[in-house]
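Hey everyone, long-time lurker, first post.

I ran two proteins through the pipeline my lab uses and got sequence/structure pairs for each. Pasting them in order. The first:
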Amino acid sequence: MRLWAFGLFRVLPEFRRLEAELQEHLKEEFAQFLARWQEKEGFLQVYSLVGLSSEADFLLWQGASHLKALQALRREMHRTRLMGFLESVALYLDRGEGEPGEESLALFPFGLEVGSPEGARVFQGEGLLALEGPWEVLFPLALREGGYLAARRTPRELLDEL
């Protein structure tokens, strides 16, 4: 069983007021940071919520075998300069089995009262539920049930959307 951390983040308006060159430098530094973490033990997947949520701009899903790894990611994130322009909107912790693939994600922090749709891969935690699959399958469910719908991205692709 793996520990899971789903972190949702929003870009602060002050970031958009920075010179374009400085914005680009901060994005590149953060993209490299995320890419380094993707190579470590466990997993770190990056998802865009741009245009899909009014609460957050992106979601990070980390899986680790021990609590110290979850803490280390957050500690090191706070040492990046871009974190001065990001707000942590929510953090959902749980534990479960499996690693995400390359498709879209629907996150239901408090589970679902209806069954999971056909065509979606289920990641069941002790409290939360994450579904991975095609947009066509996840979108209607996220609308009805109020979950977060997110598009899988590389770190650089994500930051280019901000």
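...and the second, right after it:
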Amino acid sequence: MRLLLLQTGGVSKGRSVAQGQLIKIQLLATFRVQIDAAIDHVIGKGLENPSKITVVGLSHGGFLMTYLIGQAPDNFAAAAARNPVCNPGLMVGTTDIPNW
């Protein structure tokens, strides 16, 4: 079984850096609750074996995946971060993404 969860959209537009960071921290906590609920749901329905839960993320999803495995490493059998955006400061001047 595959459970696909998508996270989209930015939160910082029109806000100060401090406001944007606070909102992102709050969103991470909400994201974690939602992921935990989704995993509990599929396990509770007998749709997935808890020992086979894996997580994969690309770009910002890679960042979210690293957050998840950092917060609950025992919840996942495997993890893969593809092109994670974990340090935007290092991307300035080197990325081909125009909004960085």
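Reply from user beta_strand_b:
Welcome! Quick read of the second one: The longest strand covers residues 54-58. Helices lie at 17-44, 60-71, 88-91.
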